[in-house]
Design brief:
- The chain has about 210 residues and is α+β, with helices and mostly antiparallel strands.
- It contains seven helices and eight strands; from the N terminus they run ααβββααααββαβββ.
- It has a four-stranded antiparallel sheet with strand order 4-5-3-6. The chain has a two-stranded antiparallel ribbon with strand order 1-2.
Amino acid sequence: YARAPGINYIHAALEWERINGVRGGWQDPIGAMAPGFKLIRTCDHRTFDIQVRETPHPIMERVVLFDTTIRRESRTIGAKVRALMEAPGHFSDTLTIQVGKCEAFFNETSAERSIEAVLANWRLISGYVPEMEVSLPKIRGAYDGYALVGAGGGGFGMMFTDGRTSQEELCANIREAGLPAYVPVVLDGPVWAETSGERTKERELSGVA
């Protein structure tokens, strides 16, 4: 794939997941292979309109990634979500409304509004699927609330600074509570590896997305 368009990498990753029975979302291969803070649109899950924000998103100055160290079966949570989507009710309409807010979030200029949007979305979705929630200790310097990423099975999530505490200080406070924490960066190039024998050399890696 060395000279293939990026979309070929994405399709190859999705096909590998399908063959090996670990099907995930297309946002993961796109996140690793397309640079920048992105808004991704698709109607068929095969063709993608990837829009990259030209200026830094304000939320990146306040967000910290952390690991709850709790691992759960994502498929269990996913089954509950699919059941809600297939059943008559408001859940599918709620998701449609939230998806419609993505463009406003992508273009947001306020860190506070961005944080509130993320936390409100998490409270809304986890209200339908309480199995996604975890119990966390109170963290000094953190904005009130957190949001796990994906379906929550992996146990990774986002916290935000209170506006007075730096990201590095919040990471230190989270680590004091016994949880790994990191300041994220936005990749400006793809993540890929070249393997030769037993050695793997990473190239064009500017940080952790």
